[in-house]
Amino acid sequence: MRQRARSLALDVFAPRAASIDSAEMYPWENCFALRDAGFMGMTIPKAYGGAGAGYQEAVVLVEEVAKACGVTGRIAVEANMGAIGAIMAYGTEKQKNLAAELVLDGDKPAICITEPESGSAATEMKTRADKVGNGYVLNGTKHWITGGGVSRLHLIFARVYENDEPQGIAGFLVVRGEPGAEGLSIGRREPTMGLRGIPETEVHLKNLHVPSDMMLQPPSGLRKGFGDLMTAYNGQRVGAAAVALGIAVGAYEQAESFIQKREQFGRPICEFQGLQWMLADMSVQISAARALINEAVSGEGFPDKTKAAQAKLFTSEMAVTVTNNALQMHGAAGYSRNNPVERMVRDARMFTIGGGTAQVLRNVIASDLLNRKFPQTRDGYLTGSSDKSSMEDLRSVVERNPEC
């Protein structure tokens, strides 16, 4: 499978990567190439048309694809992990069949958690889902939604209310463009530093009616189910780490080739010890990152929360270091937009932010190691702030959401 993915990446994705970046266009052709190769939704169980592959195979695919094109690597993640993983684990037969049909046809699901004022603090989301008749009415705004405007299947997280009483946080399946989904609209697109071929947008929800049978009901029930949904998100985190790894490997291979060909002072620059040490360090860091990723996906089911956090934290920071060193080893040639390493530097930078910042992941790891919760809000933070909720309101939120 690695060889098939590598061949596809080299023959199809690598030649298109620069134009995808410069034009900032979503690579539909690459999606269809992944689909035709059986790589879109390959983790979907065979009973629903997928290959029944595990996350071990998925991270191999993602690494190979991301070496050539980071954007396509992200698509491969979201077609095999994240939202689709949660649906296949917790969904009803109707929900599983709906999601499988879309993804296997080439659709990259969009997972809608982040909001303008609720990024790392996901439990502070404001989007509401009010129970009305035989369904729910959603109102709110999501932001930094990967694939906004191109994805059809959306997994939207919202606070559920019945008779204005909070019930917990749930996920809702919505297919953009289908009858009844008129309340979902795409807002402005963020002009991003890297990974420019995949849009990051606002998603507006205005009186969006979602039938009750499109609520994703996790095992712990509505009041505590947000923890289950976040457990599924561990797969997305490991997938992000695999993209960062692939980008770093791509930059490393470019640098290794360049320093053996480039001559200065009458010899190949690979003969200079300073560059040899840089290359050796890059190789060690890449191997360590791959080992952490493999460890995170070595078990059954969703990756362990701490192992996923460790893999993403280390790999994302490694990718920033390795791609920057690869650019440095190219000298002025690396600073040119004609060189793929320049694009890789920009693409790698996102992974210390999206899907859990490096700082938040350190908190996650420390909390698990010490078996203690570390609330980020302390008494006094809201003192004297007239535009913030009262401390009593904050405590009420925490009591209703023990997972936060």
UniProtKB/TrEMBL annotation:
GO MF annotations in UniProt: acyl-CoA dehydrogenase activity; flavin adenine dinucleotide binding
Region (Disordered): 377-404
Domain Acyl-CoA dehydrogenase/oxidase C-terminal: 224-369
Cofactor: FAD
UniProt catalytic activity: 3-sulfinopropanoyl-CoA + H2O = propanoyl-CoA + sulfite + H(+)
Uppermost EC category: hydrolase
Stated name of the protein: 3-sulfinopropanoyl-CoA desulfinase
Domain called Acyl-CoA oxidase/dehydrogenase middle: residue spans: 110-207
Organism in which the protein naturally occurs: Kiloniella litopenaei
